[in-house]
Amino acid sequence: MLRWIRQQLGFDPPHQSDTRTVYVANRFPQHGHYIPQRFADNRIISSKYTVWNFVPKNLFEQFRRIANFYFLIIFLVQLMIDTPTSPITSGLPLFFVITVTAIKQGYEDWLRHKADNEVNGAPVFVVRSGSLVKTKSKNIRVGDIVRVAKDETFPADLVLLSSDRADGTCHITTASLDGETNLKTHFSVPETSVCQSVSQLEALQAVVECQQPEADLYRFVGRITVTQHGEEIVRPLGPENLLLRGARLKNTKEIFGVAVYTGMESKMALNYKCKSQKRSAVEKSMNTFLIIYLVILLFEAILSTILKYAWQAEEKWDEPFYNQKTEQEKNSSPILKFISDFLAFLVLYNFIIPISLYVTVEMQKFLGSFFIGWDLDLYHEESDQKAQVNTSDLNEELGQVEYVFTDKTGTLTENEMQFRECSINGIKYREVNGKLIPEGMTEDSPDSSTAHLMGEELLFLKAVSLCHTVQISYDQPDCLVGDPFSHANGFSSNNMEYYASSPDEKALVEATKRIGVAFTGTSGDIVEIKSFGKFEKYKLLHVLEFDPNRRRMSVILQTPSGGKVLFTKGAESAILPFATSGEIEKTRLHVDEFALKGLRTLVVACRHFTPEEYIDVDKRLTAARTALQQREEKLQEAFSYIERDLQLLGATGVEDKLQDKVQETIEALRLAGIKVWVLTGDKHETAISVSLSCGHFHRTMNILELLQQRSDNECAEQLRRLARRIKEDHVIQHGLVVDGASLSLALREHEKLFMEVCKNCSAVLCCRMAPLQKAKVVRLLKTSPEKPITLAIGDGANDVSMIQEAHVGIGIMGKEGRQAVRNSDYAIARFKFLAKLLLVHGHFYYIRIATLVQYFFYKNVCFITPQFLYQFFCLFSQQTLYDSVYLTLYNICFTSLPILVYSLFEQLVHPHVLQSKPALYRDISKNSLLSFGTFLYWTLLGFCHAFIFFFGSYILMGEDTTLMGNGQMFGNWTFGTLVFTVMVITVTLKLALETHFWTWMNHFVTWGSIAFYFIFSLFYGGIIWPFLHTQDMYFVFVQLLSSGSAWFAIIIIVITCLFPDAMKKVMYRHLKPTSTQKSQSLSASQTQALSCVESLCCYQHGQSGCSRLAHLLEQMTVQCKASVNNCHASSRSNRWGGRQQQETIIMSSDEPLPSLGVKSMDYSSDCYSP
């Protein structure tokens, strides 16, 4: 138990040596000297707190906030010395704030624990005690033999021992780790591949020695020692033997593997960043403002203390006849007395620091986050997924994003390839209903039938269906184990499923199958195709594997007639220069046309060998492959010798299907001033193609490349060349492409130069990126001198580090598991939803919380400044101006609800306008609403209003003027109550002036707060309360309100405060309007516009989620007439729940954005019908 606690606290690392020794099936040596190594368990932890550390860790994080720490100090001071106010006035609000925040953060972390428990509790099968035992994933130990079935994910990092295949191989996809959807083949060593039953595995005596865990997905060094008949056989282990956690088993019935890295030591988990507390720019601004107010507070306290002693220098004020000093006071130390007085003034003025600001902000963030989940525009009907908020602390950060870092596969694309067009022998074809139709013909044309394909066309289709590394899986589980060509004996080939080394290959092979030339399987070195109903068998002689330098792959086959032929396919730049026959120029033009359409292109060619030529080719390949020295160089020479004198057959155009509205979304982000970087693990050709098709790169953009740099000097020189090119050409937009290896060199020595090039590029594409490299790129931008706000979006486990590193992390609910979603701050179903999330929700959240913060400081300056001014009139005796109940309730009850409701529902501009004019997003960038100038304006306004409150009331009552009909005069409590009354009314009406979007709830809390103050004061001062020790306020408020002069003074003072502010707003709006104010006129005609709850949170009838809560809120904030039947009838055609309506919005000079799918609404329908 003690060791477990030490491990939880991080004091007891599980391992210390450089290597680890894993005994397969935990069959440890029997001699007494062996001390087993300690390894981590198999639990995945994405949560921030545990039961043990929640209280201390959460309290530490909360007391990092200046206001919380400050009020803790004030509370302790009030407990230790005699102060003018009760400790409860500071302690109660502090306790309330800490408790509410802890509950909110605890709830959010509980959701993470719940998600972790689902993963850790997943059922797995482990070989133990001679049988297959079902257990939970978290119970897997290092050394356990685990069984994984087809389409299951690996629960730990496993060394492959055996599979159901005779050769011990298996196929996996690592889409959730590196973003690649291609099928990868992994191998077991011969000595373990024969162990295909539980009894054989139980008898296996083997030891795996390997390196300690490291984050590199592509590196694994180890060896396995198998003991057979008393003899030890040692085999090397590499990445091809390791099955990574998070990868998925494909095309293989089952495998057995031994766990070598588990839990947080698996490579997937090591690529996660440590979960850290993210703090928004607004919160940092709040802390800065709090420090300024702390300085103001200290200044007021020190000044008051000095003035008190200056005043008491006169004997008549030092010890007046009515306040004689005690002996203890006379003998006390002057220094201690000065400190005591200073602390007393500090307590008296401490309310200038608004502790309730934090709790209001927490409540606003927590309640406001529900709007994202309720927004029907962020709901994906096909997958039945709504937007999800994992961390509400960063809502306003959505309105400050300057850089978006996005994954490609599964985020920008659907991860689906579709064959579109091809060029054969200089003629363009397209596929229509399983037929190849030449350009200019229709499906009904007499000469368009595929059955009439000529020799060149047929050879092209055969080349495409034979030149690949595709694997086949059949529905029948035993099909692959038995006769691979069993479909020829009655089994339908329609039931087979292709698994490809690249998504392009799969799309091409599926296309040729539809057209009539189907790849039907392999058996050893025999490859079979079915060409228009006729089976043909080819013998596979050699495979010339794809590599990024050649950018092509080839196969050498023996045809059924005995001839030898080479089929090759690759990028046009890698094939066309080596072609000597065929329609080369026509094909080149067609390839360019395909690329302009955004299609991924491949060129196909062939070469027929004479018997003598093939003997020479075979010798060269065999010699190169068996060379012990410089094998790679010799293979490249052999490949170059073979892949020449090619006959060009044609080219293919495959579309990587983009997600819906990706291009419009990227364009909207660009118009909003947000730079988009694509970070992908894919090949750079593929990545560039997708970047062009999705609008990330424009066709007119000058593409700069930083690729395959091998040394620091080479990298630096290339960066300087790129920088010069950018400076020389200021007109053309530039896009930068950089690969992972070059990026590592650039970041090592030339960070500043690299950043200079990147910042001058409109778009940046980083390919071949490892997960931690993605995080490094984000950190590089994040820590640059400008400190921009970054957002990362991705869908796989390979994106988790980037998501956690960025200021805001967004997970896509895609096809690659839920790791990204679990570790993100927000989760959405599609990339297109990012536009509304930032441009609308981000805009609203930011303006709401920015006004909330400024308003809180303003109303607290108004609150405490009269208290400071009052000391000049009471000999700095620390007499309080307000009653202690008013001191406590001012921020908690009298002025809290209006600003909370404002911060939930305010809309400066209608959501439609924000989406159609992304440039409005620039108005709030760089934290502009919380700039020092704006902060200074609100602070000075607070001081001005406070002076008017105090001196307005003083002019009325200061000269002992009688304001009662019976000649009676008011006292100091009445004076303080008059100031307090004017203050409550003024600060509430000031917020009303700032409100643009009025709902029923705004009216209720605004006028209700003022009414509540009057009612509470009447009850508090009109009744003798038995539990109060003293009741200074008895009948004070009633007496004040019985004076007509007091009422007149209240009205005059309130108007004096607010009239100049109202005039300033009118003048600025007409003489110097901002872009936002101009856009407000666009919605002027929309007087019946949707309420905030309606426009952001509509769920159509019958949907689950928060629809009933949204309906309840709508009843409270109703703006539209209840029309249940209309909503029901129209929800069938409009997922907003409103009838389709054509609505014309006249745009201003800014160029409008093409529609992002925002639907017009009939504002009269009730969207919340239960």
Describe it for me?
The structure is a single chain. The chain has 1170 residues and is of the alpha+beta class. Among the domains are: 122-269, Calcium-transporting ATPase, cytoplasmic transduction domain A (Distorted Sandwich), CATH 2.70.150.10; 357-367 and 840-1071, no CATH class; 379-412 and 657-836, Rossmann fold (3-Layer(aba) Sandwich); 420-439 and 458-475 and 496-651, Calcium-transporting ATPase, cytoplasmic domain N (3-Layer(aba) Sandwich). The protein is built from 41 helices and 35 strands. Strands 16, 17, 18, 21, 22, 23, 24, 25, 26, 27 and 28 form an eleven-stranded mixed sheet that branches. A nine-stranded mixed sheet has the order 14-35-34-33-15-29-32-31-30, with helices on both faces. The longest helix has 38 residues, at 833-870. The chain is elongated. Mean pLDDT is 79; it is low at 9-15, 476-493 and 1085-1170. Residues 124-184 form the P-type ATPase A domain. One of its GO terms (biological process) is phospholipid translocation. Component of a P4-ATPase flippase complex which consists of a catalytic alpha subunit ATP11B and an accessory beta subunit TMEM30A. One of its GO terms (molecular function) is ATP binding. The chain crosses the membrane at residues 66-81, 87-103, 288-311, 342-361, 885-905, 935-957, 969-992, 1004-1028, 1034-1059.
List keywords for this structure.
alpha+beta, Rossmann fold, 11-stranded mixed beta sheet, 41 helices, elongated, disordered C terminus, P-type_ATPase_N, endosome, lipid transport
